[in-house]
Amino acid sequence: MALSSAEIQRIAHLARIEITPAEAVDVRAKLDSIFDLIGRMRAVDTAGIVPMSHAQDVTLPLREDIVTETDRRELYQSVSPAVQNGLYLVPKVIE
Amino acid sequence: MSWEVVIGLETHTQLSTRSKIFSGASTAFGAPPNTQASAVDIALPGVTINKRSVFARKNYFYPDLPKGYQISQYEIPVVQGGSITITTKDGVKTVRLTRAHLEEDAGKSLHEGLSQAASAMTGIDLNRAGTPLLEIVSEPDMRSAEEAIAYAKTLHTLVRWIGICDGNMQEGNFRCDANVSVRKAGDAKLGTRCEIKNVNSFRFLQHAIEFEVRRQIQVVEDGGTVEQETRLYDPDLDETRSMRTKEDAQDYRYFPDPDLPPLVIDEAWIERVKADLPELPVAMKARFEKEYLLLPEDATALTSTRATGDYFQQTLAELAGIPNVPYLSQSPDVANAKSVANWVINELGAFLNNHQTDIENSPVSPAQLAQLIAHTGPFKGTISHKVAKDVLAAMWAGECGGDADAIIVARGLKQISDAGAIGKTVDEVIAANAPIVAEYKAGKEKAFNSLIGKVMTATKGKANPSQVNAILRKKLGA
């Protein structure tokens, strides 16, 4: 299956990635080859097979419900462009 | 035109864990901003996050979601199916559940309280980020705001009962999003729905749904069409309004989270939890109605929380254990239960309500309350109901260590049932109130009640009222 350039732009927008029309041509070719691969895999009969949800056959380890993290706000906020009263500041978002 | 309302609810219940779902940061409410936000919660790059339900990424961009995706469950949630039984004035109804899935909460955005210089900014507090939620999704089985409230309240009771969520709606630990649509009566096809968010009380949920139903009917009757959208409820204006639709907001591009292997809950774990599960509220309510012949409304009140149900049962057991408490009928449990239910719901309930506290914090224990109830009319009859209420007040205040026996002795409240003593007081009252006695003899029944009142006042309310009545009637008739 081939993607249209409009679809390429939409996927880029959803991922908040800025691409130029020239880059879109390149990205489109790469994505098309990935979809070709998926198309070939689709030819395999997978009826009755439970789909994989993870590459490895492992399960999620569980832990005790105890608090182990301490307050490291100062350290984490040292790399933030703007903070006030302990809050991270971001351009205004109004719902 | 007749319209049918269709409602489904999505309820976010914050799980009562100490730590977050994928990090060891605290979930405690009210800490200074970002002091309980670990490297995982704030999604610092490079941090590795180390269950058969599968966690999926729900992708969207918002500043309170630092990773750019929320870890949720999509194709294979932890719970599928199930149902909740609700009771409304129209009877009992079953609301089907679609699913319940685990997910992490996002942070909070604060738009007010920043300095002038930062007025064009939004403040982000990530303390809540990563707090575990169980989102419980119903089928669109509810047909009125009343049914939706009954469902939400039943679910609220249940999650607190089994101890998985504290149900605090003010702190946002139990949040309902309502999916509301209307269709012409008889239509098989569902109408276009709107999702209402931002509802943090049952009353607001009811108002929000009622407003939204009126709005949608108006739109359609005016020849328009309802747009599928998310709407916010504004309690100040009592209306819902459209959230500015986030562009492409519906395209979450879910996919299994490659960092997280499936969550496996084995049979032994399920059996362990089942074995630990208490009797559930619906079952307890049904038992109270069957075993104790309690009225449905009393059984509902006594099973509003697990603590209330436990308190009632403990008081009943304590009362049965007090020596010399006479039983009233062939079914002692039924008679005792009626009395205990009244004391727990009405009398103790009034104190709990006035002091804005819960039954688990009651200064009067079930054993102490049982001791008081044993003194009342149906049992030993040591004190009148009115005096018993005064004794409860003294117990609440901690007088005599909350011991009813000691308070009755210390305050000299024991009911006077001695015919000789009551007869003497009656003689005194008759002698001192000749005009009222004359009125009674002239046929004024009110005058009789006035004389009863004077005898009760003279005995500080301690005289047995039925004995006073009989003795006074006899003496006046003579």
Key words describing this protein structure:
heterodimer, A: 95 residues, mainly alpha, Histone, subunit A, two-stranded antiparallel ribbon, 2 strands, 7% strand, flat, B: 478 residues, alpha+beta, Arc Repressor Mutant, subunit A, 3 domains, nine-stranded mixed β-sheet, 14 helices, 37% helix
Structural class of chain B: alpha+beta
Number of domains of chain B: 3
* Shape designation of chain A: flat
Low-confidence stretches of chain B: 46-51
Oligomer: heterodimer
Q: CATH class of the domain at 5-42 in chain A, anyone?
A: Mainly Alpha
Beta-strand residue percentage of chain A: 5-15%
Determine the N-to-C terminus distance of chain A.
Answer: 38 Å
CATH topology of the domain at 5-42 in chain A: Histone, subunit A
Elements of chain A, N to C (H/E): HHHEE
Estimated share of beta-strand residues of chain B:
15-25%
Gross CATH architecture of the domain at 5-42 in chain A: Orthogonal Bundle
The count of β-strands of chain A is: 2
Tally the helices of chain A: what do you get?
3
Mean pLDDT of chain A: 88
Characterization of this structure:
The complex is a heterodimer of chains A (95) and B (478). Chain A is mainly alpha-helical and 95 residues long. Chain A has a domain at 5-42: Histone, subunit A. Helices cover 39% and strands 7% of the residues of chain A. Chain A is built from three helices and two strands, in the order αααββ. Chain A has helices spanning 5-14, 21-42, 73-77, and strands at residues 83-84, 87-91. Chain A has a two-stranded antiparallel sheet. In chain A, a hairpin with a 2-residue loop joins β1 (83-84) and β2 (87-91). The longest helix of chain A has 22 residues, at 21-42. Chain A is flat. With 478 residues, chain B is α+β, with helices and mostly antiparallel strands. Chain B folds into three domains: 3-256, no CATH class; 281-410, no CATH class; 419-477, Arc Repressor Mutant, subunit A (Orthogonal Bundle). Helices cover 37% and strands 18% of the residues of chain B. Chain B has helices spanning 145-161, 202-221, 267-276, 281-291, 296-302, 306-320, 332-354, 366-373, 385-396, 404-410, 419-432, 434-441, 445-458, 465-477; strands spanning 3-14, 55-59, 69-73, 79-80, 83-88, 91-104, 108-110, 121-125, 132-138, 174-184, 194-199, 229-234, 239-242, 255-256. In chain B, the strands form three sheets. In chain B, strands 1, 4, 5, 6, 9, 10, 11, 12 and 13 form a nine-stranded mixed sheet that branches. In chain B, α4 (281-291) packs across α5, α11 packs across α13 (445-458) and α12 runs antiparallel to α13. The longest helix of chain B is centred in the last third of the chain and has 23 residues, at 332-354. The model of chain B is unreliable at 46-51 (pLDDT under 50). Classes of the chains: A mainly alpha (95), B alpha+beta (478). At the A-B interface, α1, α3 and β2 of A face β8 of B. β2 (87-91) of chain A pairs antiparallel with β8 of chain B.
